[in-house]
């Protein structure tokens, strides 16, 4: 052996544990040498700087499951030990909870860009829900009106909506809903629209009313599938607005002629002629032929332009041609 002294270091499982936790304090006692020859050879190679694969000893499959770290050289001086890596290895100095490092790591995963993207998504959600909320509130208001017959409550609800840009959509929802109502309720609804548009506080404007009617006409072809008399019901609402001077026959005529899912679609399928023919029929029955002729003359509408293409015919319109 000679006179050279031999220095023993921790080996086996303890050596691998030290590679994760860092070097023990100087006061720690040296453990017994592991009886595992493979661990002994690996430990000796780590201490003496050997790196050849032939000196690693017996292969242990569990080694691939463990992170591989270089064992710090206890005798290489301060330069051999990197203090900057201590927090990453969760070294427990002074009773520090190693789980705090895990929490710090989790917090570090939430980068500023991630938080910014999350905030942007959150800001988009309320806008989508507000549209749905406006629809629910407006439909709830008209249902309450049919029950209580209180126009003031409807006015208060419109003010609570606080969204003038939504008024055309609200009107179209109300008109489409009226197709499923009784005749008496539709008459009350037509009167409600007139009063809201004529109100001094400007609850509804004429432009909002016309835009709402335009929205209804764009979906009328589909509405007829569920309510075959929808053109007649819509004509009654239009006629009420014309007789109350809220809208003119000329304005309604233009909406009808250009209406549909695509411009002019209602004219192609014959619905335009049916709606206009019903409007004229209602005005005549309520106010007489003289009033009808006066309204027709002032509107300058050419009824021939509302005839559907052959072979379609509009019986209600043909009565006035």
UniProtKB/TrEMBL annotation:
Q: Which residues cross the membrane?
A: none
**PROSITE patterns given in the database record:** MI
Q: Where is the composition biased (Polar residues)?
A: 107-127
Keyword check for Magnesium: no
| Location of the region described as Disordered in the Swiss-Prot/TrEMBL record | 1-61, 76-133
**Per the record, a Pfam family?**
MA3
Under SMART domains, the record lists: MA3
Q: Which Gene3D superfamilies match?
A: 1.25.40.180
Keyword Zinc found: no
Q: Which GO terms describe its molecular function?
A: mRNA binding; translation initiation factor activity
Organism's domain of life? Eukaryota
Which family does the UniProt entry place this protein in?
Answer: Belongs to the eukaryotic initiation factor 4G family.
Instruction: Please give the name of this protein.
Output: Putative initiation factor eIF-4 gamma, MA3
Protein species of origin: Rosa chinensis
The taxonomy runs:
Eukaryota, Viridiplantae, Streptophyta, Embryophyta, Tracheophyta
